[in-house]
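Collaborator request log, item 7. Partner lab (contact: R.S.) asked for a structural prediction of DUF2797 domain-containing protein to inform their binding assays.
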Amino acid sequence: MSDFPYLCAGTAWDNDGAVLRLYAPDGAPYPLRLGPGTELRFRTQSGTPRYCLGYDQMLEAGRTSHPCPAQAPAERGYQCGRCFARDESRLVHNSHRGGPLPAGLRDYLARPQWLYIATFADGTTKVGTAAGQRRVLRLTEQGAVAAQYVARAADGLRVRVLEDAVSSGLGLTQAVRSGAKCASLASPLPLDSLADINAGHADAARALLFTLDPAGFEVVKDTWSRPAAFDAVLGHRGAGIYPLPLTTGEHGLLIRGLLGSAALVSTDGEELRFLADLTQLKGQRLELGRFRTMLPALQEPLF
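Returned to partner:
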């Protein structure tokens, strides 16, 4: 059992797979791999608030994250007031609308960026942006099932103008809630149908982009390849949603697969599979140990 609670900053993906980002009270990272077979056992305190995850400084080489010195309770989103005021990443999405920008953020935005169209398990489709060096992992972390890149922009300011144009012109959202992504995996559309939906929106986006001033970007046709790790989740149809809130009580989860931040899990002695949205753990303090899930009485679906 851990001697202290770890602060959870959510899930992330790298070239080796998924990790749960945990931090000790002194800010030291403690990444926990979430490969198939991993036991995720923890306890969270009932009624506790979310805690601050610190702030990001934007530099030409990328973003640098700084932990909250006090791991204080969050006041806005996942930040305390002090870290919110110092955070530069929150300025990114409105950077193309004018106003002064920190020098490091200007350098960060000067790098090439990609515009993509991503489709999720129920057919919901969004438009988004990704920096060049993370364009593949960005879509993996988003939990896309099908996606295409439709433009390469010279910088982050131009790509966000394109994002707004496609969003308003085609009625595509720029954000999909993690809970909705997880729930959609309980009854996903066939993969061929999702590929067709995505291709239709991507082609429409390219057609719209061709009508715009071409300065600062080029239209591209490049398909994102879904990672093989997603197959464990997509191949298990009929899993229900994990019936307990992850933000309170004890949980003992055996990871069977991960898609974005949605985990296919089972519990001790149970054959049932569940879908758990691990984004719920973001900003929570987790005590690790030999904890178990106490499932409520569950009714099998009627067909």
